[in-house]
Design a protein that fits this description.
The protein is mainly alpha-helical and 151 residues long. It has six helices and three strands, in the order ααβααββαα. A three-stranded antiparallel β-sheet has the order 1-3-2. It is globular. The two termini are 36 Å apart. It holds the Pfam family MarR_2.
Length: 151
């Protein structure tokens, strides 16, 4: 009975840790994005997906982002009008087009990342003691491992 109670307590502690971690990470991400003016949007998420996954059709983008084809077509058209992506004929299916990140799109993503990094750097410098900075550094491999969750 004591072993069963211990396992239940362990499960409760893990559930509480998971809740607290999700809340802390979400709050942290929102604060950094707010402080740097780099809020998530359909456009920024589409640019990020194109950078991570490479060129793809509007249909593939819509599927990966969980939006309708029509919505994604509008997002890609706006990104193209802003010079952040270009659309080319799909060599595998000449009826469809492939969206590709342009150098300007890459630069826009990099500027946003640099702004967020600078904001985090300043917060670490101002708010954390050297010992706390060490603790944070030691936690990074754990966070990286948790980021490897299967889809």
């Amino acid at each position: 009975m004591k072993v069963l109670m211990s396992k239940m307590e362990d499960q409760e502690a893990i559930a509480e840790l998971a809740h607290d971690l999700r809340r802390s990470v979400s709050t942290f991400v929102r604060a950094v994005r707010h402080n740097t003016g780099t809020q998530r949007s359909a456009q920024s998420e589409t640019l990020d997906l194109l950078q991570r996954a490479g060129p793809m059709s509007v249909a593939s983008l819509a599927s990966r982002r969980g939006v309708t084809h029509q919505t994604m077509r509008l997002v890609v058209a706006q990104l193209e009008a802003n010079g952040l992506v270009r659309q080319e004929t799909n060599p595998m299916d000449r009826r469809s087009r492939i969206a590709t990140l342009t150098p300007a799109g890459n630069d826009a993503l990099e500027r946003e990342r640099e702004a967020r990094t600078a904001s985090i750097k300043e917060a670490i410098r101002r708010l954390l003691s050297p010992q706390e900075q060490g603790t944070l550094r030691a936690a990074l491999p754990l966070l990286d491992r948790l980021s490897q969750l299967p889809d």
